[in-house]
Design a protein that fits this description.
single chain, globular, transmembrane, lipid metabolism, alpha/beta, 7-stranded parallel sheet, oxidoreductase, Rossmann fold
Length: 358
């Protein structure tokens, strides 16, 4: 049995310049000039140099610091009103269930929690890549099959206890034009990407309600808001997941101990989209799974609900819907979204080539 890797083993070996993105620039700004603590250091530095209160450098920098502080407070108030108070999260009392956890993002989250000593159950039709990991139990299951999910849920309850964290991560990509998709491929896509979430929620939510604590994480995609060519079935299923999350959140509004979290990432460097190239690494960088996993794990550990959307462009993609149709068409052309799948190969091709993946 191989031990779980450290987080550093999942870091990208991309060229240094590939890490220079608009997301990196904004992250630096958020930790400096847009950070209230840093902003207040500027007027304090002026005061230390004996600047008077009426001197422009002092009162302008103080006004800026006050503005940044107000924005920060407004952000905290908005989060509290929108998503409620945090729930308590105790590693030793949690049982985490991850669908599609045999590779990619799901496997990474499973191994990180396993390293921490958290009990983890992975549901997948594929064997875990790299072998089993500490504290991670694998259950072979087609999550698109309701009967299999029901049977495995009973096994998990018996073996590990009542699940308190559910991460619906399972997904497949066909990458074909509509007329090239078979009825079986379309059906399998919706069973795996969408219906599986209904099945797992129906099995594990009752236990969370009894305990009055839990977290349900829905892994959707930025493609739920913009559906490129050759991704009709995938984008449709991811859009439906957003609606599922929204409705579920509304139904649990009177259950503050149960948090719902929606994740809408851009393209990840996992086998799922092998062969796809983004048109601009600066504005639309390919995400490393470790970066997305850190955000998800931090939200779960913090007992938070809400919405994680990354990289930066994915947070504003919804604005396209209110723009004139002609501008929308231009932006789709300029972004290359409808040409991005031209080089798509996918997991099957990667497996056939014998490349090492995780």
């Amino acid at each position: 049995m191989s031990g779980p890797p450290s987080l550093s083993s999942f870091q990208s070996d991309k060229p240094l310049l590939d890490h220079l993105t608009i997301d990196l620039i904004l992250a630096i700004l958020n930790h400096t000039f847009l950070n209230p603590v840093f902003a207040w250091l500027i007027p304090l530095a002026y005061r230390a140099q004996t600047f008077q209160y009426h001197h422009p450098p002092f009162y302008l920098s103080a006004a800026y610091a006050a503005f940044v502080t107000v924005l920060w407070i407004a952000k905290q108030i908005n989060r509290r009103i929108a998503y409620g108070a945090k729930r308590e999260f105790d590693w030793m009392e949690e049982v985490v269930v991850i669908t599609g956890g045999a590779s990619g993002l799901g496997l990474l989250i499973a191994e990180v929690y396993g390293m921490r000593g958290v009990t983890v159950a992975v549901l997948d039709v594929r064997e875990p890549e790299g072998g089993e990991a500490r504290n991670v139990e694998f259950y072979k299951c087609d999550v698109g099959d309701e009967k299999q999910v029901e049977a495995v849920a009973k096994e998990i309850e018996r073996d590990l206890g009542t699940p308190t964290v559910l991460i619906n991560n399972a997904a497949i990509v066909n990458g074909k034009r509509i007329l090239d998709l078979s009825a079986e491929e379309i059906e399998t896509n919706f069973k795996t990407n969408l219906l599986s979430s209904f099945y797992t929620i129906k099995q594990f939510l009752p236990g969370m309600l009894k305990l009055n604590r839990g977290s349900i994480i829905t892994i959707s995609s930025v493609l739920s808001s913009i559906a490129p060519a050759q991704l009709s079935d995938y984008a449709a299923s991811k859009a439906a997941l957003k609606s599922l999350h929204s409705s579920l959140t509304a139904e649990l509004a009177d259950k503050p101990g149960i948090k719902t979290l929606l994740v809408t990432p851009g393209q990840l460097s996992t086998p799922l989209f092998y062969g796809v190239k983004t048109p601009s690494n600066f504005f639309a960088p390919v995400l490393e799974p470790v970066d997305v996993a850190k955000e998800i794990i931090a939200a779960i550990d913090g007992g938070l609900g809400g919405h994680i959307s990354m990289p930066v462009y994915s947070r504003w993609i919804g604005v396209m819907e209110i723009l004139p149709a002609s501008i929308q068409k231009f932006l789709r052309w300029a972004s290359g979204a409808d040409r991005a799948m031209a080089g798509f190969k996918g997991r099957k091709t990667l497996d056939q080539e014998g490349n090492e993946t995780w």
